[in-house]
Amino acid sequence: MSKQTTAIPQSQLEAQFAYCDRIAARWHSQGVSPAAYVETYGCQQNEADSEKLRGYLVQCGYTIVSQAEGADVVVVNTCAIRDHAEQRVFGNLGALTHTKRRHSGQKIFLCGCMAGEPTVTERIRASYPHVDGVFSTHHLWQFPEILYRVLTQGKRQFFVEDEPGSIAEGIPQVRDSRLKAWVSIMYGCNNFCTYCIVPYVRGRERSRRMEDILAECRELIQGGIREITLLGQNVNSYGKDLPEDVDFADLLAAIAQFPGDFLIRFMTSHPRDASEKLFDTMARYPKIAKQLHLPFQSGSSRILKAMNRHYDRETYLKKVAYAKEKMPDLVLTSDVIVGFPGETEEDFRETMSLIQQVRYDSLFTFIFSPRPGTPAAKMEDSTSKEEKNRRFDQLCALQNRISQEIHGDYVGRTLRCLIDGQDGQLLTARTEGGRLVRLSGDPALIGTYRDITITGASTWSMTGAL
Ligand code: SAH
Ligand code: SF4
Ligand code: F3S
Question: Which of 189, 196, 338, 385 to mutate to test ligand 1, by most ligand atoms within 8 A of the CB atom?
Fold first, then answer.
């Protein structure tokens, strides 16, 4: 891999800030205080990107609002991971014709992972004329320029050229929460799992410089952030493209030594690159949450090979055993795909038995969705939809039972939790493992870590008392 990551030069970012100033001045001269709405689909990576879009919009003079109706700018930040996700976006894009009719100055933008698919951008060009601008994740840093062009040139803008990808530091961010923050540590993916569209729409893997990440984390912690989640499609390969000799465990250890009352989480870990060093580091530092999201995708080594996952059932189980040995309280979650092309009943049984063996706290379960342009979309798939649904239901039933049992075991235990919000009359809190607890208490406690005794449990959440 090349040891060179393309950074966007500071001068080019300054040029974007100049566009922000021009847009703000334009609104000011019209005596208008404009509003903007950002709608986010997909994973935490997109949530983090939306915080940057909002950061830019605020710098352009916009107030961020929570609905498209009446907004001067609407940005739809999309996800392409499964067909269902895309259909939802197209449906909602259609509905925006009405908000635009009621507010003729409304400018509509589509960005995110779908904007990296040529078939999607063609469809927007041809059939969604009310969309004023489309830009892929590679061009997010140019959003002020795109917005300025739409406002001043009266022409639709498409910034969708594919590229390996770059890193832009210093884009302003408006964060969703004052207690929890996402920090992207790397972008893109090199793994090309055969079912997955991410490498095609987000480009090659590239790591931010460690000093930039550390500076951001330090600032967040000093500003009162209690939980930092480090983000990347495969955080365990952090640093491979950097000139320095650093890896993800080094990065974790460096953040974990900052002073302050906070926890570090991270996602996602690819099992291939999850090392003993990583688990040792997690075990060693109290500020690293004992929580691991380690997607296995399938329990069948044959299917894992067809998925191009670069590990087999045995290596996966060995890694999990090592992690559990080092961290007896580890909360383990995972992703699994049912109905990959060629998955037989026997392969499926292996997935079920792996789940029984590992006993995850919870699982994100997916039915295989062919993504155009990926190798798996061309693989022969003779299993019927009904059969896939049957397997899916069986798997969910198994996992629900396990989640409930694991939650049940928490009853009576006292855990240190971050009280993070309110849900009606109750407070909400998160355990170190990320489990949701509801309890009664004084809202003044929000933002503090407290010992909470678990009094009850269901499949999805728990109740507790201070
Ligand atoms: N980088 C992460 C995954 C990101 S996508 C990792 O490798 O672990 C999140 C999850 O979506 C994947 O783990 C996978 O389970 C699911 N997924 C991705 N592509 C899919 C597809 N084509 N059909 C069904 N599920 C898919
Ligand atoms: Fe997709 Fe695989 Fe990359 Fe995850 S590691 S984003 S599943 S290609
Ligand atoms: Fe979706 Fe893109 Fe994330 S495809 S899951 S938003 S990386």
Answer: 196
